[in-house]
Amino acid sequence: MKRLLIVLGTVIVGIGIVAGSAAFGHWKAAEPAVIKAVVDGTSPTPDGDRTHAKLELAIYPQSSGAVPGPQLNDTGANVAANGQGWPFYWPSTSIELPANSVVEVTIHQYDSGGTIYNPWFAKPQGIVEGTFTVNGSPEVGVSPTNVAHTFTIHQLPEGNQPYLFVSVPVPAQSANAPTDANGYPTKPIDVTFTFRTGAPGTYVWNCEFPCGTYYVSFGGPMSQRGYMSGTVKVV
Asked: Entry's InterPro entries (predicted)?
């Protein structure tokens, strides 16, 4: 009986240490430098003309000499993951957008993919007219079996601010796509979509495709700022 209690106590302490480490790591998560959408004019909307801004991002399958990967101002709690082959959004996952504006986002996609667990995320949500373009061609979704990543903005759980939910699927590169010396496809898949912001607020965003590590591929880069999750500030 004494041995059983010792074993149980050891397991409980071990679980506590793991959970505490995970919580500490998330709390100490480093933020990369902010990338700001560039205002380039105005855009007509049903509510009148609004500021129009553009944001460009890229998705890479791993870091390289040409694209060094996230440069986090880290305190030591985060994983130094560039050498682990984690995919990442570039040049940053800390995003700033103008309030009450029309925002046009273009993502240059270089990664492979597969089947997304929830096919709902294979269709766009919260974007203007419900359509986006893939290499210039209008689309209303992608095949759930050919998703590389998603770009999904949502509320903080306790958020008391204007509602904002945007999700767009990004299709995968072909397994036969020609690659350059860095291992990247020579041509990206370009995905462009537009959505509207409201009043100022702070949101989080992440990828909903299982492109990570550990349990059901939702660990590692999936929860790491600088890689497949980040923040969106509307100012």
From this structure: Cupredoxin
Angle among Cα 234, 109, 39 to the nearest 5 degrees reads 30
54-96 pLDDT, tens digit each: 999 999 999 999 998 887 665 443 445 555 778 999 999 999 9
Instruction: Return the number of other C-beta atoms located less than 10 Å from residue 172's C-beta.
Output: 22
Q: Do residues 20 and 107 share a domain?
A: no
pTM confidence score: 0.83
pLDDT digits (tens, 9 = 90+) for 182-205: 999 999 999 999 999 999 999 999
DSSP assignment string, 153-192? EE--TT--S----EEEEEEPPPTT--B-TTS-BSSPEEEE
CATH code, domain with 145: 2.60.40
Give the 3-state secondary structure of residue 218. Answer: coil
Residues 219 and 110 in one domain: yes
Looking at the structure, tell me whether residues 191 and 202 fall in a common domain.
yes
Residue 213's nearest CA partner among 85, 72, 95, 105 is 85
Contacts of 128 by beta carbon, 8 Å cutoff, 6+ apart = 102, 193, 194, 195, 196
